[in-house]
Design brief:
The protein has about 350 residues and is α/β, with parallel strands linked by helices. It has 14 helices and nine strands. Strands 1, 2, 3, 4, 5, 6, 7, 8 and 9 form a nine-stranded mixed β-sheet that branches. Helix 2 (about 55-70) packs antiparallel against helix 11 and helix 13 crosses helix 14 (about 330-340). The radius of gyration is 22 Å and the shape is globular.
Length: about 350
Amino acid sequence: MKRMTRVGIAVLAMLGALSACGKGGSGDTAKHESKGPRTLQLAHVSVEQNEDMYHHLATNFAKRVEDQTKGAIKVQVLGGAQLGGERDVAEGMQLGTVDMSLLASFTLGTFEKKAMVFDLPYLFKDYQTAFKTLDSSFTDPIEADLEKSGLKILGWGHGGFRNLYNSKHAIRSLSDLSGMKVRTPESPIYVDTWQALGVNVTSMAYPELFTGLQQKTIDGAENPTALFYTSRFYEAAPYLSRTEHVYVAIPLVISGRVWDTLSADEKAIFQKAASESVQEQRQFLIQSEAQIEKKLMEAGVSINADVDKAQFRKAVMPIYEKYKTVIDPDLVTRAAALAQ
């Protein structure tokens, strides 16, 4: 009788282990042992609102994958930094403990120096130039090196131009930045750019940004206008200036470990779903920009377009020379040519 009990326990334990293999969150074990639908988790740090640039892209992609696999693969979207900040999530994808994510392009520079090319200030003159570059062979060496480090890029989502916002006053010239404490991402180019513009740079994790603005730990920060709106940063920093100092992409990334578990047909579906979702998200955000600015003004935000960008560009030009060798001389040269 005791022998039968031990055998029963062993069988139950084995069944439990097999059941766990079908769940998301572990690229090494998420094989196809389970006959039920497979669930992968897609993490991002932004708010879970359909008009948010991150969440809109994530949920659109998730729906397309489920539809195109006829329910065999489901993508569970987890926003609000539920699985940690972007760097934590990227490291999790390398280990296979996180399945997928949307990351701001500056996060990729931590893992591959070539990706830092997108952090260069005033690189793209408009959105169409950025899209043309991101959809061209220009990104091939960046994607190839990232894939070697365990991060597979499926598509380059739209983040938009980053603009400065603060709780003090409108920014028109460099003198308006004097003494201002500004939070930037932990990208060395971002830090050097803002130091060149004369601000006191403060590094702060994204989930702590709203509190930092509220408590006056910082005077301001910079994000795409759409994110400024959906994250409600304007409640603590009502002055928005269109500095448009850098374009940020939001790549859709899958763990290399998870990618290797997909069949050829599944990989094709994921690539198709990513491409379609990226194109739709770009158009959605472009079309909604005017509406977002209108909503911000109705909420009492002062939006200033009268920024001396020529002065700003001149101040940050040494950044190109400083990072040309760090990134890749040929890549920086190609980027500058594409951006003309």
